[in-house]
Amino acid sequence: MAEQPGERGYDAGKKIKGRKRHLLVDTLGLLLSVVVHRADLQDRDGAKLLLPALLNFGWVRKVFADGGYSGQLLGWVKALIAGRGLTLEIVKRTEAGFKVLPKRWVVERTVAWLGRFPRLAKDYECKTEHSEATIYIASCKIMLAKLAK
Are 135 and 21 in contact (CB under 8 A)? Predict the structure, then answer.
């Protein structure tokens, strides 16, 4: 982490200091929306900041989420997407060790793509809004490169 001022936090469960990123991607791994917040905010609360962006994408029919988003968030999401034809599926780990989980690798691949950008390798930005803008810029570059092929 770069020694920069701004919103930072510490998540004792994940043992990370700084910020967390929540991504909403399509089935190709292309970014639809992003939220960056302090690390001391729980993942479920971070998802509540991100998931209202789903309402901007009327073509989305199914949402896959990590097991960390289960619990009280499920009821909140069901109320948010009620009557919109959306379903939420939690993809949980079933056993210890590494195993490729269905649809979960799509987001992990997107995170790896974004990790190739030097500005995103560390948290250089002072404000969370600047971090989000940098992620959007990197995502635009990824999409343009795919279109150019």
Answer: yes
Q: Which residues contact 144 (CB under 8 A, 6 or more apart)?
A: none
What are the boundaries of each domain within the chain?
9-148
Lowest mean pLDDT segment, chosen from 78-87, 88-97, 109-118, 129-138: 88-97
Give residue-wise pLDDT tens across range 3-46.
556 677 666 667 777 788 889 998 888 999 999 988 888 778 88
Residue 31: strand, helix, or coil: strand
Q: Say which residues have a Cβ less than 8 Å from residue 23's Cβ, sequence separation at least 6.
A: 31, 33, 34, 50, 107, 110, 111, 135
* Strand 87-91, strand 16-25: pairing: unpaired
Core vs surface per residue 91-102: b (16+ CB within 10 A) or e: beeeeeeeeeee
DSSP-derived 3-state class of residue 18: strand
User: What architecture is the 9-148 domain classified under in CATH?
Assistant: 2-Layer Sandwich (3.30)
Judged on CB neighbours under 10 Å (0-12, 13-18, 19+), 7 is middle
Going by C-alpha positions, the residue among 31, 50, 10, 44 that lies closest to residue 141 is: 31
